[in-house]
Design brief:
The protein has three helices and no strands. With about 140 residues, it is mainly α. About 10% of the residues are buried. The N and C termini lie far apart (about 85 Å). The protein has one domain. This is DUF202 domain-containing protein.
Length: about 140
């Protein structure tokens, strides 16, 4: 074998390695932010039906049964939180893989937009449900 048969290894560059470390740390911070967001959404999902049940039990004449609607809204928040967590973990794994490959190219993932749109849909449906319930009471 001739030395020309082996590809030359790129020289060690401290600036490049530190930039990779900063990028990895930023990816970790982003993942932690998504974990907090997901946990908040899941917490809202558990809290909404509990609050509605408590309010319902405190009313002596129950004029409407909001349990079904609050359970749907709660499950929606839990689902969005789980979806956000899954997407964030996958995105974090892909970013770390790109950093290791030495061919890092920034691409917007759109995760925040997807979660924001899902929350907007749940909020709109909740708004319509509360509006209809208040008009029929």
């Amino acid at each position: 074998m001739h030395p020309r048969d082996f590809p030359e290894k790129a020289p060690y560059n401290l600036n490049n390695e530190l930039a990779k470390e900063r990028t990895r740390a930023a990816a970790d911070r982003t993942l932690m932010a998504w974990i907090r967001t997901s946990l908040s959404l899941i917490g809202f999902g558990f809290g909404i039906p509990t609050i509605v049940r408590t309010i319902e039990m405190s009313q002596s004449p129950p004029n409407a049964n909001p349990r079904y609607f609050s359970n749907i809204v709660g499950l929606s928040f839990i689902s969005i939180g789980m979806y956000a967590m899954f997407i964030a973990l996958n995105e974090h794994r892909q970013i770390l893989k790109k950093i290791r490959s030495d061919r890092y190219v920034y691409e917007s993932s759109g995760t925040a937009t997807q979660v924001g749109l899902a929350l907007l849909v749940v909020g709109f449906i909740s708004f319509i449900g509360v509006l209809i319930r208040s008009l029929t009471s």
